[in-house]
Amino acid sequence: MLDQSVTFDSALIRKYDTAGPRYTSYPTAPQFHPGFDADALQRQIAATNAECPQRPLSLYFHIPFCDTVCFYCACNKVVTKDRSKAGVYLQHLFREIELLGGRFDPSRPVTQLHWGGGTPTFLSGEEMRALMAQTRRHFTLLDDDAGEYSIEIDPREVEPGTLALLRELGFNRLSLGVQDLDPAVQRAVNRIQSEELTFGVLEEARRLGFRSVSVDLIYGLPLQTEDSFAHTLARVIAARPDRLAIFNYAHLPERFKPQRRINAADLPSPEAKLAILARSMEQLAAAGYVYIGMDHFALPEDELARAQREGTLHRNFQGYSTHADCDLVAMGVTAISQVGDSYSQNVHGLDEYYARLAAGQLPVAHGIELSRDDRLRRNVITRLICDFSLDFAAIERQYGIVFANYFTAELQRLRDMAADGLLRLEDGRIDVLPRGRLLIRNICMVFDVYLRRGEPVRFSKVI
Question: Which end of the chain is more exposed for a tag (fewer CB within 10 A), N or C?
């Protein structure tokens, strides 16, 4: 059975302190180009229909609106108190659903569905019903609650009856944004959210039969201390969510305007951030959570933890997933799809999004069709980031290569990491050791051929 333990080694973390991709895709988004357009996406859809007309689909809908701005946020969003803007957006989103849905074989079931944002519950109950109804008209949704249908929830936007409506519409999983429960931290980032409100939503979700609840936290926010964050985490652990994500706050005010309202002097030092992370991992391990990877933890019986032990875990733009067999069809402004051997992203601006759809065009801004080398390297990176191990023979059989010859330079770099205790490299395998698992992004970066070109791309720090 896979050893899912992880070791916090501050010396190694400092040595490998660098920025790098999160590998929700490979190649990563900076490699997307405008030469991959709506016509290219349609060719990929046609090819996947022909190759496997019953291949399941994963749908993602981006709802960009928020009522108030959280100063730390780096998401694509529209902050407004004008709820009528959602109606205009939905009119165009419905058109995109119609255009895309008509291109996929109707025998392809939707086994995974996710609403993200922004704040999806910015929509009214009537609008949420209409969005799900439009989706059902043009895609084959499951009616037996067997799919993984999830939604991101801001507890401040949950009114009486909201969760019951979501359950009625078919949602069976929730992701709760919490970030931090300390009042001083909440004021510093403009997200005031009481413990009573937060845990009330979690408890109601369980009463209504939601199968899984995940909680998102962020470390490195202003005014956080090791003790204050430990208190937040202890309160969350006591509620026993099925999954936890503890994200590293990346302070990039030159890129994300809301972050300019954060006082940089209030941010914890790099040493303090490491102390917060180390203690958090101790708390989670003591509570029985296992480290899935890339900021994510889960209870041992959770589907993610089981999939990792069984070697079937997957990673895409929604994070870790158990649905490796799906094409990901993403709709809404900035949404990123993964169809066949391609990635494509919609336009960023609402005006352009509306104009494209008003003209009957898919709003694809750019994308990429993967080469054979891309597909090979994606497989290597995916297996490492999901399994913490890689069997050379499996890759050789699938791609007809001799691993040691194809990746000569990469294996040499890995030997240096092996000497540092991050991994074991022997018997035709890579096994990431417990002290290397927090640094899995560094290990995956060895296989990223695009990073060698030295292009000026900004990524977040790996820790």
Answer: N
In this model, does residue 75 exceed pLDDT 60? yes
- The CATH code belonging to domain 1-27+371-463 is 1.10.10.920
Q: Which CATH architecture has domain 31-330?
A: Alpha-Beta Horseshoe (3.80)
CB 282, CB 233: distance < 8 Å: no
373, 112 Cβ separation under 8 angstroms: no
For 458, residues 6+ apart whose C-beta sits below 8 A from its C-beta are 19, 252, 255
Instruction: Give the Cα separation of 329 and 58 in Å (integer).
Output: 6
Q: What tens digit of pLDDT does each residue of 430-453 get?
A: 999 999 999 999 999 999 999 987
Domain boundaries along the sequence of the chain: 1-27+371-463, 31-330
Q: Which own/partner pairs from 235-241 qualify as long-range (CB within 8 Å, at least 24 positions apart)?
A: 235/181, 235/195, 235/199, 236/178, 236/181, 237/283, 237/284, 237/287, 237/289, 239/199, 239/202, 239/203, 239/215, 240/299, 241/176, 241/202, 241/213, 241/214, 241/215
- What local confidence, expressed as pLDDT, does residue 456 receive? 55
Hey, how many other C-beta atoms are within 10 angstroms of the C-beta on 379? 17
Tell me how far the alpha carbon of residue 92 is from its chain's centroid.
25
Give the whole-angstrom CA distance, residue 298 versus residue 212.
Answer: 11
Tokens 């009119």 belong to which residue? Answer: 91
Residues 352 and 360: their CA atoms lie apart, in Å, by: 12
- Confidence at 318, pLDDT banded by 50, 70, 90: confident
